[in-house]
Amino acid sequence: MNEIDHSLNVSDWLSQTEGKLSVDVVETRDEIVVRSAIAGVQTQDLDITLSDDTLTIRGNRTHECEEHRSDQIHVQECHWGSFSRTIILPCAVDSDSVDATLRRGILTIRMKKGEMDKRIPILELDDL
Fold this sequence. Notes:
single chain; about 130 residues; mainly beta; Immunoglobulin-like; 4-stranded mixed β-sheet; elongated
């Protein structure tokens, strides 16, 4: 389930204005669990929405360190600023049974599975 976007070169990646959030999506017998390491983000800086089979996590990580124009950055891999991730869920979930917690920099979203796909009956219309 590892996604690698080979379409971006390094300069494109560094110039992106919004970061992409890394997530783990786990399906258990009763629920879907989404986890993400988002150290440095406060709950008030997060927005989580669920629409049909799509979960979206948006947030903002502020950079606490002050850098000066004269500073020379040798490596900068951490993304500061806005980020988001949209996930298409592997099955239906109950939108009334979603819990999100942020503990020690790990965001965990638990969603109880909803009603699975139903078989649709086909009406016989030959007698019209």
